[in-house]
Design goal:
The protein is mostly beta strands. The chain has one domain. About 0% of the residues lie in helices and about 25% in strands. The chain contains no helices and five strands. Strands 1-2-3 form a three-stranded antiparallel beta sheet, with no helix packed on it. A two-stranded antiparallel ribbon has the order 4-5. The chain is globular.
Length: about 90
C-alpha cells in the first residue's frame, strides 16, 4: 500500500487591493484537484501598518469565507452591509 506524502508548495505574491498583497498558496498549478474557488492566502501584520485591506466590492455568489486569525484583530466590512470584528480564540 502506498503511503501518503507531504509536498511543500511555494506560494506566490498576489496583489488583491491597492495597498495589499497576500502570499497565495492555493490554488496552485501542481494541485489541480483543488477548485478555482478555494483560496488559501497568508497576510501578515503589514496590513496593520497601512490603510488596511481596502478591497473593491465583489460578489461572493453564495461562497463562504473562513479566516484563521493567529494573533491581532480584524474588522471586516463589505458591500453587502456585513460589519464584524474578530480576534483569535484563547485556550
Amino acid at each position: 500500500m502506498t503511503q501518503p506524502t507531504s509536498v511543500l508548495l511555494p506560494g506566490h505574491d498576489v496583489p488583491i487591493a491597492r495597498h495589499t498583497t497576500v502570499r497565495r498558496l492555493l490554488p496552485h498549478r501542481e494541485r489541480r484537484m483543488v477548485g478555482a474557488w478555494c483560496f488559501v492566502d497568508h497576510f501578515d501584520d503589514d496590513v496593520a501598518g497601512g490603510p488596511g485591506m481596502d478591497i473593491a466590492p465583489h460578489p461572493h455568489t453564495g461562497l463562504q469565507t473562513v479566516t484563521w486569525l493567529l494573533e491581532g484583530a480584524v474588522h471586516h466590512r463589505d458591500s453587502l452591509g456585513s460589519d464584524q470584528a474578530g480576534a483569535p480564540r484563547r485556550a
